[in-house]
UniProtKB/TrEMBL annotation:
Residue ranges of the TM segments: none
Keywords from the UniProt entry: DNA-binding, Transcription, Transcription regulation
Domain HTH deoR-type as annotated: residue spans: 9-64
PANTHER family, per database record: AGA OPERON TRANSCRIPTIONAL REPRESSOR-RELATED, HTH-TYPE TRANSCRIPTIONAL REGULATOR SRLR-RELATED
Protein name: Cytochrome C
Residue ranges that the Swiss-Prot or TrEMBL entry lists as coiled coil: none
Cross-referenced Pfam families: DeoRC, HTH_DeoR
Native organism: Streptomyces variegatus
Length: 276
């Protein structure tokens, strides 16, 4: 991390969390030097990250939280993490959508960010099992009123999870009867061994149905999801057509992705022209 006194709180906390995960722990005095901020500022940042459940404060510093494979953070807890990365990923992913397409958006805070980027794409049909994603489109229509080219939104039924996704037999049956051009999939974890995974067994089955109904699968996930494994896997890496992520993805992970996926899009970085 480079010293920068003008970092926003969100940027500082993202850098702190990356450092904690990379090194297995940090000390307050190290962070004050690296970030160029006061001891009090660092401690406030650590307090905020500890409240979000992403690190544990210890005497003089912080260490990573070791999550159980069944741990599922709520939507609000996840929405405050990696905000800049999620916005960058959303903008990059939105470029893959063409007017008139039938797309699906799974639950998650990154797909929620993507939904905002799709509001001006005309004539979309959007299938989602996310209450939050559906609300983005419905709120826009309430604000602007009926307009030509507004998205048609199909919200599956189902049982609500802590991340505000709808899962279970009702959602699965609704999805199984549909077919869409593109699926944008948020994930809890992604790894070579486990593929795509989630801590929620019912959500794993619903995500599996989403993947089966999609002609092409685009995973939208920031770099912190790499190497995480939830309780249940629902798709292998080979089933993914495109991964859209941020520049924080390590070089080693990029090499692995290149071996297993058809396309890697790193938000903010140039790539070879290719059709997904």
């Amino acid at each position: 991390m480079s010293e920068n006194q003008n970092l926003l709180a969100e940027q500082r906390r993202s850098l702190i969390l990356d450092e904690v995960r990379r090194r297995g722990g940090v000390r307050v005095n190290e962070l004050t030097r690296k970030l160029g901020v006061s001891d009090m500022t660092v401690r406030r940042d650590l307090d905020a990250l500890a409240r979000q459940g992403v690190l544990e404060k210890v005497h003089g510093g912080a260490v990573p939280v070791v999550e159980a494979s069944t741990h599922e953070p709520g939507f609000e807890a996840k929405s405050g993490l990696e905000l800049t990365a999620k916005e960058d990923i959303a903008r990059a992913a939105a470029k893959l959508v063409t007017p008139g397409a039938a797309i699906a958006l799974s639950g998650g805070t990154t797909t929620f960010a993507l939904a905002h980027q799709l509001l001006d794409v005309p004539d979309l049909t959007v299938v989602t099992n996310s209450v939050r994603v559906a609300d983005v489109f419905h709120a826009a229509q309430r604000t602007s009123g009926p307009r030509q080219g507004a998205a048609t939104v199909v919200l599956t039924g189902g049982v609500r999870t802590p991340s505000d996704s709808l899962v279970g037999p009702v959602a699965d049956q609704a999805i199984a009867a549909l077919h869409f051009d593109l699926l944008f999939l948020g994930v809890h974890g992604i790894s070579v061994e486990a593929g795509l995974s989630t801590p929620n067994l019912a959500e794993a089955e619903t995500n599996r149905r989403l993947v089966q109904s999609a002609r092409r699968v685009v995973v939208v996930a920031d770099h912190t999801k790499w190497g995480k494994v939830g309780l249940s896997s629902f798709a292998s890496l080979e089933r993914i057509d495109t991964l859209v992520t941020d520049a924080g993805l390590p070089d080693e992970a990029r090499g692995v992705v290149a071996e297993h996926l058809r396309r890697l899009v790193v938000a903010g970085e140039p790539e070879d022209d290719a059709d997904i």
